[in-house]
Amino acid sequence: xxxxxxxxxxxxxxxxxxxxxxxxxxxxxxxxxxxxxxxxxxxxxxxxxxxxxxxxxxxxxxxxxxxxxxxxxxxxxxxxxxxxxxxxxxxxxxxxxxxxxxxxxxxxxxxxxxxxxxxxxxxxxxxxxxxxxxxxxxxxxxxxxxxxxxxxxxxxxxxxxxxxxxxxxxxxxxxxxxxxxxxxxxxxxxxxxxxxxxxxxxxxxxxxxxxxxxxxxxxxxxxxxxxxxxxxxxxxxxxxxxxxxxxxxxxxxxxxxxxxxxxxxxxxxxxxxxxxxxxxxxxxxxxxxxxxxxxxxxxxxxxxxxxxxxxxxxxxxxxxxxxxxxxxxxxx
Amino acid sequence: xxxxxxxxxxxxxxxxxxxxxxxxxxxxxxxxxxxxxxxxxxxxxxxxxxxxxxxxxxxxxxxxxxxxxxxxxxxxxxxxxxxxxxxxxxxxxxxxxxxxxxxxxxxxxxxxxxxxxxxxxxxxxxxxxxxxxxxxxxxxxxxxxxxxxxxxxxxxxxxxxxxxxxxxxxxxxxxxxxxxxxxxxxxxxxxxxxxxxxxxxxxxxxxxxxxxxxxxxxxxxxxxxxxxxxxxxxxxxxxxxxxxxxxxxxxxxxxxxxxxxxxxxxxxxxxxxxxxxxxxx
Lengths: 332, 281
Prior knowledge:
- The complex is a heterodimer of chains A (about 325) and B (about 280).
- Chain A is mainly alpha-helical and about 325 residues long.
- Chain A has helices at about 15-20, 25-70, 70-75, 90-120, 125-140, 140-170, 185-210, 210-220, 225-235, 235-255, 255-260, 280-285, 295-330; strands spanning about 80, 85.
- A two-stranded antiparallel ribbon of chain A has the order 1-2.
- By secondary structure, chain B is mostly helical.
- In chain B, about 75% of the residues lie in helices and about 0% in strands.
- Chain B is built from eleven helices and no strands.
- Chain B has helices at about 10-40, 50, 65-95, 100-115, 120-135, 140-165, 165-175, 180-190, 195-210, 235-245, 250-280.
- In chain B, helix 1 (about 10-40) crosses helix 11 (about 250-280).
- Chain B is globular.
- In chain B, about 55% of the residues are buried.
- Chains A and B meet through helix 2, helix 4, helix 5, helix 6 and helix 7 of A and helix 1, helix 3, helix 4, helix 5 and helix 6 of B.
């Protein structure tokens, strides 16, 4: 591994000996270097400071709502700005359900794409397809929203939901009128949005598995699928879990696309066809219109919940990925 | 030689291979579907007026989104000006000075976490930090939110790119008597130029399509951009408002704006990759 900056700057040498040699010029150079070092240090400190400041600020601003509603905030389905009654249950429920749908679709798809890119496609095809899949991540959220609302939701209502209703309609999950907009559509669009993030890292993981390990399995007559399933995936499991959590964090906080297609109803429904809402979509829809202090504070409290959830998910993801890269950089 | 029909293990392998190919195809179909829809619906909205005129009131046809185009450019530029120097400096510390430092570890970790922080949360933060004390929605709050989103991207790419520069280069410069800051800013930066540009471009691409952090910071405005001290017109929030409106003319404008944003973001992304590739060769 490349060890950066092993060289010793003038600041590491005893200043006295340097001054003895060259006098004033070196002293200014030393001072310049120290200033530079401190300046860069301060800037790098800003990153964690901003992150902590966000959490602190959210906590402070949500305090009135926390005091007013207490733990009941999490369990109440009530959301009535007129009566000043606020509860987070439907938003949290919607966030979790839409994310669950997204992961249910995105994880198998991403793993399969990574498998295709690493093991099956010829190098040129792999590069082109890989780039195109990565471009999916570059498309802004609001564009997914426009496409979702005007094209994909009608498509779901016309072709997908009626079929699901007929075949799986005995489950409460797939009952109700096929509106197009709703939890299921939001979840599917979320899946497309997080797919490039998961597949990019999974591809790296697959590529980082030492060829010797794979080749020994191939040598014993295993098929590509058997090598992947019995060697590559167990070998890179930590990294894959990290990638999945990274995608999970993205899906939880994704805002605009979901706001366009989820229907924005403060309601918990058993059916995935029904409109719902998520924390992020509630914030996007109502924040700029909220005037009452308690209303604003309740919205910020929703934001705080989202902050805490995504923070936890991100921490898990980073720990997993770091563990993997550290273990592998040693050569194991 | 006769081929046996695949059974058992070989059948499983075939099914999985097909599934993998199909998955890659699904991903590409979605990308091209979105691009096709955006281009085919957006092209009709684009004309000279779109780029030169102010929006018209609902129901009246004509007009354009010139103010929002200018506003988006200004907001992105302001955020870039704020985030780039800080991000570069932070990246320098992580790459050049953070050996065995706990603070460096924590900063790197935070940058990774901050990169995954939902942008709407950053919007709420900018709202409570800037909009509430000042008492009105402003471009400053919007630019701050965007800058916070850019910061970790620039920091992490800068670090990665500086680490790719071989140490011999630093050593030779230091041996010639150059002070450390000069070595970093003149020698190492020049060696890592392509990569640094990539980092900045990726960050710009990331925020120029952002809507959520602007919704309640910069808000939006039907007038020309005056100063960052007031609500600032921008394309993405305009798309949101227009798309949700019942007027076909506004919805068409939303598609025009979508096309503009998509093309802009994709061009910047492709440029960023181009600079990265140039660096590797």
